[in-house]
Design a protein that fits this description.
The structure is a single chain. This protein is an alpha/beta fold. It folds into two domains: about 180 residues, Rossmann fold, CATH 3.40.50.720; about 190 residues, N-(1-d-carboxylethyl)-l-norvaline Dehydrogenase, domain 2 (Orthogonal Bundle). Helices cover about 50% and strands about 10% of the residues. It has an eight-stranded mixed sheet, sandwiched between helices. Helix 9 crosses helix 13. The structure holds 1,4-dihydronicotinamide adenine dinucleotide. The site of 1,4-dihydronicotinamide adenine dinucleotide has 24 residues, from helix 1 and helix 4.
Length: about 375
Amino acid sequence: MSNKISVIGAGTMGSGIAQVAASNSCQVTIVDSFPQVLESSQAKLKSILNRLVEKGKMNEDKTQHILANINWTSEMEEIVDSDLVIEAIVENLEIKQKLFSQMESLVSEDCILATNTSSLSVAGIASACNNQTRIMGIHFFNPVPLMKLVEVIPTEKTDERLVKEVKSILEGWGKTVVTAKDTPGFIVNRVARPFYGEALKIYEDGIADFATIDWAMKEFGGFRMGPFELMDYIGNDINYSATKAVYDGTNHDPRYKPSPTQRKMMDEGLLGRKSGKGYFDYSESAVNPEPKKNEELGREIFNRILVMLINAAADALNGSIATREDIDIAMTTGVNYPKGLLKWADDIGLNIPLSQLKELQSQYGDDRYIASPLLIKKVSENSTFY
Ligand code: NAI
């Protein structure tokens, strides 16, 4: 069982991964090229742990134990005796490839090498290495200590035995693990795209404003946050890049087409909470518009976004990106959807989303509404996903 873990990159994700591994009694080495990033990572972790002690959620001994388990360093050579290295540096293929090649030259043959990339091809990163059988994606969600889901992404060359080993390590850390194919956005970042994209399209079609669309998804769908408040929370730059990566990676599948509205927001620096303004205004004196609570309109909005989400989930299953169970677990655990989308579709009856998609396609003449072949097949067979 792996005990010596190295994490490369002491930013948001690397620091979170190090915290979780160290909390589970692993010896952790965290490497970053910038000493000030290492200092800030260490200071942030101390403050997080202090807050947990103040709230009575952790005792002092445990915090000392966690801190003692982590070695912050700018020396890559210190990863030499690792059992598992997780890379969480800047999202750039060439830089990651260079790092993997360096990691391969430092660690032993038995060490597993993983990337936390969210939008690059794992096989593309691994291609820089001689031995690709020990390389896989381990995709955590932010904030790592709070988000239970982890997507594990083997490439066609990854040794199945090592995938099992990694899953058991992550489960030992209390994570819920799903397996995804090495395809753009893996499960969550692909299947969730219509939550944002269709909400933006509804706005662009002049059907409703941001507040009303958010209200509809919470009121009728039971989602914890509406698409626009969530995009403001994630950041329009990050959310736009995630959409663009899936769109480019799927040879411009019209279902994932980025929105001109979001592009404009990004270009204007209206990024959301972090810039003080996005779809909503976060300044102290701000008065944001109230939703127009019309039940018929609200249900129409919710149904339109839900059928697009169901279609994306069906298409992920059709492309064997993951099992139906893992697709549903990923969406309920990774983005807190109230129900798994495939189960939800079964409960509604598959002919309903299919006929809504057909209606939308004939109304707008837009290929974004083309139904997944699997949804069509299931309806024609009068069957269900489960
Ligand atoms: P970040 O910018 O907070 O941290 C990246 C860190 O890597 C920086 O501190 C930088 O100094 C360091 N770094 C860059 N090149 C390096 C090198 N060659 N050697 C050592 N350190 C180096 O980025 P963040 O948000 O933590 O993302 C890291 C990775 O995780 C990216 O691949 C990102 O796509 C992925 N990811 C991010 C999520 C998020 O919500 N932020 C969620 C899931 C995955």
